[in-house]
Amino acid sequence: MSQTIQIKAFGMIAEKIGSSDLSLDNPGTLKELRAQLESQFPDLVGVKFSFALNKKMQLADSEIPAGAEVALLPPFSGG
Questions:
Q1: How deeply is 57 buried, as exposed, middle or buried, from its count of CB atoms within 10 A (0-12, 13-18, 19+)?
Q2: In this predicted structure, what is the pLDDT of residue 48?
Q3: Which positions ≥6 away from 45 have C-beta within 8 Å?
Q4: Domain contains 59
Q5: Which pTM does this prediction carry?
Q6: Is 38 domain-assigned?
Q7: pLDDT mean across residues, the chain
Q8: How many domains does the chain have?
């Protein structure tokens, strides 16, 4: 019953995974997604990045709705 989610990666995150667009099976939560990404792309381990779900920034672990678009955002410069 897994659904596919669209991943959009920006900046150095896209460079580390070698793509700005990915389709993955929905792991359920952002925390699980991060673990899945880190196992698939070891260069992401220890890298700080933020998630946006359907264009809304997420500050905590959140459930990923079916068919969601998840953006991987590198740290913003300028503090």
A1: exposed
A2: 92
A3: 38
A4: yes
A5: 0.90
A6: yes
A7: 93
A8: 1
